[in-house]
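Morning - adenosine-5'-diphosphate inputs below, output right after.
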Amino acid sequence: MKILFAASEALPFIKVGGLGDVLGALPKTLHQMGHEVHVVLPLYSQIKPQMREKAHYRCHFSFPHAWRDVYCGIFDAEIDGVSYHLIDNEQYFKRPQVYGEYDDGERFAYFSKAVLEILPKIDFFPDVLHANDWHTALVPVYLDTQYRLMQGYGNIRTVFSIHNIEFQGKYDPFILGSTFGIESRFLPLLTHDRDLNLMKGAIECSNKVTTVSETYAKEIMNPYFSFGLDTILAPRSFKLSGIINGIDTVLFDPATDKNLPANYSAADLSGKKVCKAELQKELGLPVREDLPLIAMVTRLTPQKGIDLFYPVLNELLGEDLQLVVLGTGYPEYERFFASFEPYHPDNFRLCAKFDAGLAQRFYAGADLFLMPSKSEPCGLAQMIAMRYGTLPIVHAVGGLSDTVEPYDPTKKTGNGINFCSFNAHDMKDAILRACELYGDKENFTAAQQNAMNGDYSWDKSAKIYEALYREIL
Ligand code: ADP
């Protein structure tokens, strides 16, 4: 099959969140299964020079978009059998940030159109075009409204994946023509709750809509989780399914991870003790094997459940445990966590930065990994933690509920600890239960073994995507 992914981030070039991880691993796995896979992404100025150098100039041209002609350069790279095409336009992608610019709608509309414009230039018309999240939601919309009758585009089937329904690309309907270059007769296709809603347009136009866990696929048909799209998704449940993400098990392997002071495996966990002691030293915490070390590696945003800490953080830090947080995000959350550090120098640290190497040392050095997300489409962090033998404590929603099974000491099954209602004291209770389990070495080790022996690879999920693609073809 000929498969083309369109996305706003993809490893090994650029990663801001879990989307970058998924777009790094899924195309590679599909290639290994024998498919011809291409990935299109923007050539951001944030791409590191050593990766930037891997992409070679192919050509440039301009295409009509809305009221003007726009420049489009194509840079190509081939990595692990996957062909990457990076779209060059410095007006849009030479910016201080990947996301969060005042004109993100315009930037990603341009990118979505470029994805379709480059197909004749790269001489690749895919069987399946797979778009991801609101940034590329206009790809299936442009395809259906502007390209279908052009040579090569007629038979392309489309899949749209929702990695996070919170961000839908909502704009004033007034800019439909001027910014998005779409004729006013298509206004109803894109309108939802009186906004232009790009994600809604993609749901309408795509042959299949997927999201990243089975539970989240059900949850987003419910107003509590849907950010307003349940009324669109529920009637279209016939084309909606949930496919759990995997992780890159080669990249995330405690036996070979070069970021760690010591390597280890499920068969020999001694290196994990070294990782814990070194992490405690690195963070300036007392080196205490007896205390459970609980880590978080997260965006500091409401979705990640940070609000739950306000009523209980002080109580929690009075317990025999160490809590370390690696994350950036809302300044008020950073200030809140930072304000606790001076009062709990021996058992609390906030590292307010994005640091991939340090994240690996957190996953390896901690005993427990806390992820109290209010909602969680899939969640990769809990799977990485489990692979590193660090037991997740999670709010049982979305992908967290599909991947973390509460440990049962009678049957010795399960790989983590969960709590079921989004409530601060329920979270605290789960943390204390986890600390108790830490004190019970036999059961803790059994749960660790279960976690480390789980299958988090992409193999199973990539086969489900393959079957889905075949179905629409
Ligand atoms: P989301 O995509 O919603 O942010 P996921 O759990 O799916 O959450 O993926 C988050 C990814 O980003 C994980 O690989 C996690 O390790 C990484 N990450 C999050 N915050 C940081 C940080 N401050 N430093 C390094 N890596 C981080």
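Note: The chain has 20 helices and 18 strands.

O.
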